[in-house]
Amino acid sequence: MLQAQKVRLTDYLDERSEYLTKFGEEATAEFDKIGEAALKDLDEASTRIMDNMNSRMQAFEESAGINIEEMEKNENELAAFEGEIDKERNEGLFFKNLTQGKPKEKVDATEEIKKIKKLTKKSAGSETRRNIYVALIGLLLIQIVDSITSTPDWRKVAVLGAIFVGLVAQVIYEQKMLSETEITEEGKTEEERR
């Protein structure tokens, strides 16, 4: 009986061993099949990617070629345009030289402009104008102080304060303009001296 059980156990182990061997071979075959399919898919994907990259590269090269052609065309047009401008400028200078002959009037006009600027500067920065502003500011300050002390009507104080601020802003603006004109005139005289 022990012998029979040994034989059955051996048969069972042989059967199981054969089954496991067959299962291992099938699993290996399946893994190989899956690996081949994955490699095939990977090759197809890489081929598609390369084709896509090649088509994009070709499209880029074509667009770059078109852009280069347009740039060359624009450069040629620009060169032609500059040539026309030079030609017209030379023609204009030729005709200008033929009709040139009144520089004295230009000098007189610039002198008149300088005189007008000086007159404007003098009127903007005159002492009487400054004194009037100072007097008005003083009167407004006195009126504001009087309004604050005598009646608690803040509307009147606010209106007088707004007028006061406007006057001060005008004085500051005129002084600034006066100093700017003096600075620009000093710069011009220094340039003329050089």
TrEMBL record:
It comes from the Eukaryota. GO terms for cellular component: chloroplast. This is Uncharacterized protein. The lineage of its organism: Eukaryota, Viridiplantae, Streptophyta, Embryophyta, Tracheophyta.
